[in-house]
Amino acid sequence: MQLDPVILFFLLGFGAGLLKAEMRLPSAVYELLTVVLLLSIGLKGGMELAETDWVRLLPQLGGVALMGVVLGLLAFALLRLSRKLPRSDAAAIAAHYGSVSVGTYAVAVAFLDTVGVPYEAYSAAFVVVLEVPAILLGIILVRGLRPDNGWNEVMREVFLGKGVVLLLGGLLIGLIVGAEGVAPLEPLFIDAFKGFLALFLLEMGLVAASQSGTIRRHGIFLLAFALVFPLLGATVGGLTAWLLSMSLGGAVLLATLGASASYIAAPAAMRLSVPEANPGLSLTAALAITFPFNVLVGVPLYYGVLNALYPATGG
């Protein structure tokens, strides 16, 4: 199979970062790329939702929300069993791994488009649903039901963060105007999606390379967890998709979401609610280890396994 060029952009950024080349995108450009990608994913999902039976979708949304809680509890249990981390760090990392990465989801969407596998585009709604439960679980695991900053501040940080607002906003716009209404915006938000994704991955490669020193400091345990847990998360995501009668493409997307870890919403919420946790541990695991693993190995692996198993299970 030919290597997707967007992956090569990630490798270019990662290699340039390791070699300490003078190459960083201006922060304003990175912000713009993030905005366009989030809105693109949201609009695609909204257009699909406009043609979807809402009654049929509600059980899937509930099942996906439960999946976020299961992933968070599973990550927390593994981290605490190791006796390597204090409760606050274990809960913060668990919140990152129960939540999801929009960037990884975008890579999975581009991969499915490249190999020509259809999928439920309304899966973008799952990204929003999965951002929340694990973050709340992480806070409860440390603070109980009374966080230091109060639930109003926590919920504001979770629901009014840039990622959730743009993704949910795109979903609502696509849902309201449908495919016909979005058509005039397609050159920017649909046709140019892979170009924006390539530039976004170039910057992510640079950022991941910049965290390589942190990986060396925290050793083999963090590295092992950040590489093994995505496989467990993908298994949970694939099983959830099968139970929800999703297509092969939808199962690949849900497995990818289960394998991914948040590096936007969860860090902001944990800084506010669990300030004693070390953010370097969570971000390094999520962004410098799990994200590259999913981009380079994980997404093709999840597709290969599900493509082999799914027909035999009736999925």
UniProtKB/TrEMBL annotation:
It holds the Pfam family Sbt_1. The chain crosses the membrane at residues 6-21, 28-45, 57-79, 91-112, 124-142, 163-182, 188-208, 220-244, 250-269, 281-303. Keywords: Membrane, Transmembrane, Transmembrane helix. InterPro entries: Sbt_1. PANTHER family: SLR1512 PROTEIN (PTHR40400). This is Sodium-dependent bicarbonate transport family permease.
